Amino acid sequence: MSAVSKVFVARLVGLAVLGPDGESIGRVRDAVISVRLPGQQPRALGLAVELTTRRRIFVAMLRVTSIEPNAVTLNTGTVSLRRLHLRPGEALAIGQILDTRVRVVDPDLPDLAGIDVPVVDLGIERTRTRDWVVARVAVRTGRRGLRRGETHVVEWSNVRGMTQSSLDLPGQGVAQALLQFEGMRAADVANALRELPTKRRDEIASALDDERLADVLQELPPDDQKDLLAHLELDRAVDVLEAMDPDDAADLLGELSDTEAESFLARMDPEDSEPVRRLLTHSPDTAGGLMTSEPIIVTPATTVAEALARVRDPDINPAAASLVFVVRPPTSTPTGKYLGCVHVQALLREPPANIVGGILDTDLAHLRPEDSLETVTRYFATYNLVCGPVVDDQHHLLGAVSVDDLLDQLLPRDWRETEPMDHADEVRS
């Protein structure tokens, strides 16, 4: 396949990035554009490349040897592993520029004169000096009566308003950015949002539905969580907190002042706020502070088929789904008497019509809410578990700790933002 010297940015997204020997380095997720002064042709400075570790790095366009329909090839297999960071005057094509509104002054398109139209793509091309510049801009007109909107490709010189100051204006669209996030894991969306300026991040957060935003918020570092929550309208912030897992909501509210936390809790539905309040009574570095109050809980009369249906719930993470806890009614925490647990492997070996009360593991030790991080860590290591029950002195099930919550507490507070000390600065293909 022949290499190209002209390409639209949206077509780059998802392409494999290869070293000169053909080994994969990552995939293109965006392009970094220099948007500085009015009248100055924007340059494509480089690509935002997502590594297999989900980290996004910057790869300069000067390192690009060729762009083909299925891959981008670099002239080196060694790239910097430093996280992508935008400098003043730089913007992400997909994440920021697409959906912004510009004016077109093309005499061949008189119907576009005097109206604001959204940018839907950027055409970049390589110059004789090997620089890449924005040469064309694709814009779309709005629907007019029964006529659908049309897409026009305009020379960059005929476009007005694509400046850094215009990107800072409120009310820019986010459709293209949201499209890019479809199908991505919440943790990867969180990483992408952290790369964006505060204004753009808040616009995208406002456009996400409550459930999706709650999932993403849970994957952000604490300081970013607080900042994003503060930029939401109060009613929306309450809705998002209600959509979060109780333990994650408790962790976030635990970062706020008592007054701020109580303000949110008072506005939440009591059914959602009550488990959060209970979790906040425990120290964050204990089993009670780590646990979720909503593990999989059933009665002994529940059939194997019903228990497996609960396990298959996509909203429950794999660690939490590894154990089903069996109690006397009520089944909401704090439950009736805790009877034992059933391992998923045991469920898979039983006929669907059997009841879980007949295959209980009653010998597995449990955690107490006051147990320390070291005790919880030793518990998981001793019993080779990824999830464990937390039971009080009256033998009520209070919740369960999963290994992902434990790791969040054991790792440094800023682990999402920093590289391990022994991590190389470069990756070789």
- State the shape: elongated
Largest sheet: 13 strands, mixed
CATH architecture of the largest domain: Roll
The percentage helix is 25-40%
CATH class assignment of the largest domain: Alpha Beta
Into how many domains do the coordinates divide? Answer: 4
Care to count the β-strands?
Answer: 20
Which whole number gives the mean pLDDT? 88
Uncertain spans, ≥5 residues at pLDDT below 50? Answer: none
The Cα radius of gyration reads: 26 Å
Strand content: 15-25%
- Class per helix and strand makeup: alpha+beta
Query: Please, how many helices?
Result: 17
CATH superfamily of the largest domain: CBS-domain
CATH fold field value of the largest domain: CBS-domain
The end-to-end span amounts to 22 Å
